[in-house]
Amino acid sequence: MHATLPLLLDTDFPALFRTRLDTLQVNLGYRCNQSCLHCHVNAGPQRTEQMDSGTADAVIGCLDRIHAGTLDLTGGAPELNPQFRRLVLAARARNMEVIDRCNLTVLLDPGQQDTARFLAEHFVRVVASLPCYLQENVDTQRGKGVFHDSLTALRELNRLGYGRPGSGLTLDLVYNPQGATLPPPQPALETDYKRHLAGEYGVIFNRLLTLANMPIQRFGSTLVSRGEFSGYMKLLREAHQDSNLATVMCRSLVSIDWRGYVYDCDFNQMLDLPVQLDGKTRLHVSGLQEHSLESAAIRVADHCYGCTAGQGSSCGGALETRTE
Q: How far, in Å, CA of 167 to CA of 130, rounded?
C-alpha cells in the first residue's frame, strides 16, 4: 500500500472555516464484507478495527450536547458492528435523521437477515453504494456476484417500501467512477439509472448521489502503482470551482472514528489528520460541545480538490447539480 499523505500535504487549497455543526458522521469500523477498488477506507473482511460499547456510549452522550440534526453511520459495513442498532435507536429517540451507508450485499450476510426490516421500522435513510447499473462494471469494481446480490437487496428494500412515494422510506444510490475520472453530471446519470434499473430489474429508488474517487488509501495507492496519481491530481485541480467551497460537507459535518476521535471529514480520518483545537491534542467525541468547532479552521490538503472539482462531491452527492 502506497502512502499518499506525503503527496498531499503541500497544498494551496483555499482556507475553509466551519459553520454550525449539523451532521455527526460516525465510522463504526473498517470491517466490511467487500474489498472495493475505489474504497477510500481500505475496508475489507480482514480489518479488525471496531467501535466498542464504551465509545458508542460517548457518541450517544454527544447527541445530547450538540443537537445535530443527522447521525450518519458508515464504515466499512456499519451494520456488522454490534453497536449499530443501539446507535440507530438512540438517534431516532432524539428525533434525529439516521443515515445508513450500506453496501447492499451486507443485508444478505448471515445474521443480517432482519437488518432491512429493522431499517424500515425505524425509518432509517439508506444510502446504498451501486457504482453502476451494468453488471460487468459493478462486478469488476466490487467483486464477482456483487451486482446480483445488490439487486436482491434492493428488491427487498423496495418490498419494504423503500423508494416508494409516500412511504417515508428514502433509498438513495451512490455512483463512483470506474477510474481516474470525474463523475458525469448527476441529474442526467440519475435519469439513466432510474430508466435502466426500473426497466430491466423492476428496482426503484429516490435519488442518485455522484461521488468523486478520493486519491487516498486503496484508490490512491492504485493510482500511484499505475503512475496515474499526478495526472489525477492535475485533473482535480484544473476542475476546481470556487463556488463549491460554500457547500463542502466539512463545514457542517464532523467525522468520528471507531475510537471516538474527531476529524473534519471521513477523508481526513483516513489520512489521520484529526481535529486539534489547541494544535496538539486530539479532540475526542466525549469532549465535543455544541459550539466548540464553530468558526474553527478546517484541516485541508490536496485531496480536498476532490470535493470541489467540477460539479463538486460530498456525502450528499454533487454540490452543484447541472444538466449540461
A: 22
